[in-house]
Write a structure and sequence with these properties.
The protein is mainly alpha-helical and 148 residues long. Among the domains are: 28 residues, no CATH class; 39 residues; 36 residues. The protein is flat, with a radius of gyration of 35 Å. The model has no long low-confidence stretch (mean pLDDT 78).
Length: 148
Amino acid sequence: MVERHPDWENDPDAPPTDDELKESERLRRELEDVRSSHPDAELARALHLAVAPRPLDQLSHRRILERAVPKRYPVVLVAFAAAAAAVIAAVSLQRPEPPRAALVHPHTTQALFKEPFKSEDASKRVDAIMASRSRDLRANRYARWGVK
């Protein structure tokens, strides 16, 4: 038997008592027994299966599907998929391809600045570059959308 020191009452690193050892052994046996309905065992099994799931056998898989999917559901799903495909085809056939416009390609920002770089003007310089790149992006988006 392990002697318990009074300071160990709330210490998580204290050695286990005999009762704790018996309880842990009982829980180990519960976890190994698949039929056990002990709440701790059920939780531990659920956590274990969440981390390392085992494959379903065909019979269990079929039973889950039969409970989740009614018999008439596949017919409705096929009909809905066919209708959706028809709508997508009709919409894509009616919409003409936008004309391909010339896009603004990456370029240097040297033309934005006439004077050499000064550290006190860094913020203005970054703002000018950002504004230029924003205009380029907007122009490219409008070109792809066919907007003139």
